[in-house]
Each structure stands twice: as C-alpha cells, then as structure tokens.
Specification:
Elements lengths: L1 H28 L14 E2 L6 E2 L5 E5 L2 E5 L2 H12 L1
Antiparallel strand pairs: 1-2, 3-4
Length: 85
C-alpha cells in the first residue's frame, strides 16, 4: 500500500513538472515572458563619445535651448570647450 502511495505522489510531481514545462514553451512561443512585462528605458547619446546613457544617471548641460547628456565629466568638459571655440 505504501508503495502505491509513493508512486502516486511521484506521478503527481512528474505530471505537474511536465505541465509547467509545456506552459512555459507555449508562453515563449507566443512571445510572453516568464518574468512578466518589462518597461523600456529611454537612452540618450553622449554627443562627444557616442556612449548611450540613461538621462537620470547622466551629467547634463543646457545649451542653445536643448539639453545635452554626458557619460562623464571629461565628455562634458570637452563639449563645453568645443562649444566655446
């Protein structure tokens, strides 16, 4: 009797794992994600070196009515020197 109970529990565990795998494959085929939807992060390009940075983490300078974003103090300095010439 104990053997039957253990086999039944093992069968249930294997069946659940199989159906979770099948659900994940179907979800992936539909373009879904296991982690849920993610939000896009807007990136801006450093005008000096071309590095892409997030606006909230970048250094910025307002010049000529627009805001320019930089990856470092060095790039911001080069831009300021270049725009003065």
């Amino acid at each position: 009797m104990l053997r039957f109970i253990l086999l039944a529990i093992l069968f249930i565990i294997v069946a659940r794992l199989f159906w979770r795998l099948v659900d994940a494959v179907i979800d992936g085929a539909r373009g879904g994600s296991l982690r849920g939807p993610t939000s896009a992060v807007k990136l801006v390009r450093d005008p000096v070196c071309g590095t892409f940075v997030t606006p909230h983490a970048a250094l910025s300078v307002s010049a000529g009515g627009s805001t320019h974003y930089f990856c470092s103090e060095e790039c911001r300095g080069k831009f300021s020197v270049g725009s003065k010439q």
